[in-house]
Amino acid sequence: MNNKKSDPGSFDRDGLIHAAQSGELRAYLDDANTVLDRDDWDVFVSVSATLWNERMHNLPQAIKESSDSRLRHSGRRWIADIIPLVRSKLPVILEDIALATGGDLSDPDYPFSEGLSKWFEGDENRFDEALHLADQGVSGTYLNAAFTVSLRKRPDFVVPLLVEMVQSSDNNCKLQAVFSLGRYDVQSDSHLALIAETLVEAISLWPVEDVSKALEAALHFGRIVPDDTIVARAIGALGEVTPEIRAALAHAILDTGGRKFGEEELASVLTHLAQPESGDRFELYDMVIYTLLEDNQSDVAVDLLTSMLRTGVVKLGVFDSTMHKVRSDTDVFANCIGRWLTEDADHLSSAVSDLLMNGASDAEQLSIDFRPFQLSTAQTIAAGRRAVGQLMVWPKAAMNVLISLVRTGPQAAHSELEALMFDPLLTNYWQSPRELLEATRNNDEPAFLTETVDRVLDRHDDYCAAIETVGFIPEFRQSEANRFYAALLRHEEQEAIYKSAPKGALADLFPTSLMLFGDSSVYRMHTGDGETVRQEAALSTFETSQEIPRMEIADPTRSWLQRVLYSQGKKLP
Amino acid sequence: MNPIIKEFFSNLKERDELDAIVPEVLTAMGYEVVSRPMVGTRQYGADVVATGIDEDGSKKLFLFSIKRGDLSRSEWNGASDQALRPSLDEIRDAYLSGIAPEHRELPVVIVITLGGVIMENVQRQVHGYMSDNTTQLIEYRIWSGDTLTQKVLDGAFREEVLSAELRHSLRKASAMVEQPDMSMRLFTQIIDTVLGDEDEDLLVRIRVLYLALWVLFVWAREAGNLEAPYRASELLTIRCWGLLHGEIEADSGTKQAYSHAFFEMVQLHLRIWDQLYAEKILPHCGSKHALSLAVPARESVDVNTALFTTAGRIASGLLWKIWMHSNLDEGPRQLDELPADLHDAVVKLAEMPHANPTMFVPASEDQAVDISLVLLVLCMVPDTRESTAAWLWQMANSSILAFKHHLRYPITSSDYTVHLRHPADRDENYRTANTQGSMFWPLLAMVAHGLGQDDLVEMLRKFQVEYMTHCTFQAWVPNSGTDQKMWNPDPRNGSSVGGLTIGAQAEPLMEVLNQEVDENPHFKTLSTTRLGHWPMLLHACRYNRLPPPPQVWMPLISQMLGSAKSEQSEQ
User: Fold this and answer.
1) Chain A contact present for B417, CB below 8 A
2) Which long-range CB contacts under 8 A does B186-194 form with residues at least 24 apart?
3) Which of A475, A553, A555 sits opposite B225 (nearest CB)?
4) How far is CA B396 from the centre of its chain?
5) Sequence-ordered list of residues with C-beta below 8 angstroms from that of A216, at least 6 positions apart, any chain
6) CA–CA distance from B515 to each of A343, B441, B469, B563 (Å)?
7) Which of residues 380 through 399 in chain B touch A, CB cutoff 8 A?
8) What DSSP designation does B78 have?
9) How many CB atoms are closer than 10 A to CB B215?
10) Within 10 A of A295 (CB to CB), how many other CB atoms are there?
């Protein structure tokens, strides 16, 4: 086939027949899709349609046989472009599509429905074929194409027909009907009122499992027609809210950025979204919240996110785009951490550590103004404990929260916060949080804060001095035999980690070579013209280090207890 | 061997150390020690006095004036009250005029005894003094570190008592003190071989081991690691008691000598304890995390084990000292008065768990032995009972929490490899299999009851009923074989009083324990009970990993309950 690739002339009737007969139709179409420009493609489609209509060669069968799996883009484009030119009856066309794609007769994909729309455009009577087929029980998305075209061409006939379908008991028909009505750019007031009434009624009367379709149609209709009441009426008509209904609401926000909603409607939609269930499409909510943040509606976005997290049904880690967006906005980041730590909800405080999981460095400069939260002394202390419990792995972040609480929280909480700064933060980490305190002392901070910091640092100085005075006591050392066992066990664990590490790791995405020697590697790189050039890449190593919490070894059980209780804002017994 | 012994003498830090060793060296040489150094007694310049046959074959009176280390100019005749020349003058002026009648006829040899050497810049003065004061009846000699070394090798460590092989083992044990396990293995060989040589006189054998332990101790002290001598002294004390208690109890003329030999061994054990615990560790017991972070470890179980072991050893030493101070022959009792240093040490011990919270959850049941000893000491001193109760609460709360959440809760196994992986599984089967028996929980309940902590007892009762029905709560008591097995360390001795139920207000628990105290005939017949040496029993319990029996606890618990009641009535 390669020789044909550079020759648009080879895409003709004979070439097509040859490809169909030799089982190479798929590859042939791939080449055609690549080589032919728009005009040549149209000519090729025209030739193909003629051959298709002659039905001498079973082209749908040929393309199916030459495709080892799902139909490729080139084949789909080809069929979609042929359909408007096909002279067959609707059932035959649908069978041909199903044969070529190996798909469902009643549910052709988008490019085919686009082709079917054009096919319906070609003759008004074809709409009757669609109705007839539907009457025979073969309904499907092809109806959308038929309805959409007919609504435009014969609205006075089709609108009442679809309204009647919406109220019918044929499930497929009614779903296709609301879909089409919801997307109908209505031209008359009477039709607008009728369609709006029909869709709202469907929302309130249909079985709950179908309501999302009606809602989706109504919300779409409300957006494209000049009637601001439709969205409100649609939302107001909702009874039980299912994951599908929430998905429809989420889609509506995504489509409009929420701006098409009135204040009350938006609040109502957010209320529904804020009560997710485990089967919900959280990636959709992720996009909703991201869109709201993008749209400078951060308060609304954080409200929604907070409400969802509070339920415990979903963890922050699911909201990937949202997390990225939150981390990139200092104010929103601080607002989220502040809000989630101050509220007495376990799921929210654990969201703080999720937020920092891959972005702890974002919190190294964290500064939160807690004044808007109007915290009591007890709430402030609880927030400090939650920060320490949740952020134990990120001591700088935890220390920043404590400093912020001292700076902007009630004075009566200072001594407890001071105690938390010392134990467990400074007792576990002697370096990084201490550096932060020293920097704070040197900044232009209120006297009460620098005095607090001074006391904590003095206490830590005494603590370290006492420990350093003792140093290591060799008599405490475990026996040689036991040290050997421990080393052996840890070595085995490391081996196991090392062996399992490549599984699913990034390294698996790339071919790797083992270098036996040297500090650089030489390889030949192909250039565009088939030549290779010598390349040399220096090998490099990457190191990272992290302070290990000292109490993990010195006192693991209490450390665990401390983390658990502090994460819940409680004090240690 | 020479350099090892010579170095040992030169490294003796205090004069009283050489004071303690010289009499043993003399006894091993066949001399009769007439007078030993005693604190607070006027010595008139002669630290040790002995009679013996000199190299010329005649019996003489030897007066030893002892000085540690090298003799410098200032130590010869400086301002210090420890200067040597004034001591020699005092012998000549005061001691000789008051010689006991039976020694008046004997020629006198005044021996300047040094751990090291006479420094060059003072040799002329010393020799001049010696020649100026030598008479027909008074002779002066110098025993330097070299001389003492030779005396030890020719006397206590002579070939017949300490073979070349054992000398080699001692040299290796001393050189390897930084690897305590290896050092201890070698020293145990020495103990077993020397004590097993029944042809040799018992006192001679014990004296050899006493001096060998001194050598090990001083070498370990120089190396900065006293683990090996501590363990060696702990074992040697137990073995000596096993061999000596019969002789001490016997109504014979040598009873005093055996008693003295045992006393010296305990003193040496406590001297090592002082260096390791009183000086090195106790001062830091109250410093937050200081001891936890002093453990050279990467495993949390290492920290836990080190601290519980340390606490148990501290308690054991304190029990000996309390016993020596208070003459409590019958067992641990409430102490209303203690010398300040002992009282401070007990207070420090009470601070240790609170400063090192790893001591809130023992890793193994085995650690109940150390916990029991610590609680025993703390409960004897009323001042520390409040912090003891706080520790009990923390232990109970944290250990129950660890149990409920499948963390590092106490398990029956003492196997280190098991502890490294513990909990290997976080499920019910693993937990049940690893908590089949307990002496820890009933101990907590018993002491909590004694301290009047009824709420804590109730919490423990509920824990037993709700979570520990699969576990046999138990206590250890001696049986007829204990007095033999205890002193040749064998942990498979005594009996288990099983099936203990804490019950409401610990009444069922206390009833069973009291009944056992009343009806067990064996505790009363233990040599330690007969001779009033209960710290020796507790010392051996710790070594054998057996918890102190209820017979030791119950009288103290009764006293504590009495105190609690009178406090309540006063309020």
Assistant:
1) yes
2) B187/B212, B187/B213, B187/B216, B187/B228, B187/B232, B188/B232, B188/B235, B190/B162, B190/B166, B191/B232, B191/B235, B191/B236, B191/B239, B193/B163, B193/B166, B194/B161, B194/B162, B194/B166
3) A475
4) 30
5) A179, A182, A248, A251, A252
6) 57, 19, 23, 22
7) 394, 397-398
8) S
9) 24
10) 15
Which residue among B226, B292, B298 places its CB closest to the CB of A555?
B292
Other C-beta atoms closer than 10 Å to the C-beta of A247 total 18
Taking only the tens place, the pLDDT of each residue in B105-132 is 899 999 999 989 999 999 999 999 999 9
Residue of B151, B135, B124, B109 whose CA lies nearest to B18: B151
Q: Which residues of B touch A550 (CB under 8 A)?
A: 289, 293
Interface of B with A in 5-24 (CB under 8 A): none
Pairing mode, if any, of strands B48-53 and B59-67?
A: antiparallel
Alpha helices per DSSP H over A391-473:
395-408, 414-420, 427-428, 432-442, 447-470
C-alpha distances (whole Å) from B34 to each of A475, B50, B51, B94 are 39, 5, 7, 17
**Among A307, A284, A288, A308, which residue's Cα sits nearest to residue A297?**
A288
- Quick one: B230 exposed, middle or buried, by C-beta within 10 A (0-12, 13-18, 19+)? buried
ipTM value for the complex: 0.91
Q: Could you tell me the two tokens for A411?
A: 């004075």
Chain A residues touching B293 at Cβ < 8 A: 467, 470, 550, 554
* Tokens read off for A389: 């419990």
Q: How far is CA B177 from the centre of its chain?
A: 18
The pLDDT > 90 percentage for chain A reads 44
Q: pTM score, two decimals?
A: 0.80
Give me the residues paired with residue B475 across strands.
B497
Looking at the complex, report in whole angstroms how far the Cα of residue A398 sits from the nearest Cα belonging to chain B: 22
What residue type is assigned to position A258 of the chain?
Answer: G
What Rg value do the Cα atoms of chain A yield, rounded?
A: 34
Check CB contact of B181 with chain A, cutoff 8 Å: yes
List residues of A whose CB lies inside 8 A of any B CB: 427, 463, 466-467, 469-482, 485-486, 489-490, 550-558, 560-561, 573
Q: B421 and chain A: CB distance < 8 Å anywhere? A: yes
B 254-313: CB under 8 A from A: 276, 280-281, 284, 287-300, 302-303, 305-306, 310
Cα angle: B31, vertex B37, B40; to 5 degrees: 160
The tokens for B545 are 């990993």
Distance from CA of B296 to the nearest CA of A (A): 6
Whether chain A has a CB inside 8 Å of the CB on B360: the answer is yes
Q: Tokens standing for A69? A: 């799996």
Q: What is the pLDDT along chain B (571 residues), one digit of tens a residue?
A: 678 888 889 888 776 888 889 999 999 999 999 988 776 566 778 889 999 999 899 999 999 999 888 999 988 988 776 789 998 998 988 888 888 888 988 999 999 999 899 999 999 999 999 999 999 889 999 999 999 999 999 888 988 888 999 999 999 999 999 999 999 999 999 999 999 999 999 999 999 999 999 999 999 999 999 999 999 999 999 999 999 999 999 877 788 899 999 999 999 999 999 999 999 999 999 999 999 999 998 899 999 999 999 999 999 999 999 999 987 889 999 998 899 999 999 999 999 999 999 999 999 999 999 999 999 999 999 999 999 999 999 999 999 999 999 999 999 999 999 999 999 999 999 999 999 999 999 999 999 999 999 999 999 999 999 999 999 999 999 999 999 999 998 878 999 999 999 999 999 999 999 999 999 999 999 999 999 999 999 999 999 999 999 999 999 999 999 887 777 777 6
Q: How many Cβ pairs closer than 8 A exist between chain A and B? A: 131
Among A333, A352, A272, A281, smallest CA distance to A304 is for A272
Residue B6 identity: K
Q: What is the pLDDT of residue A530?
A: 66
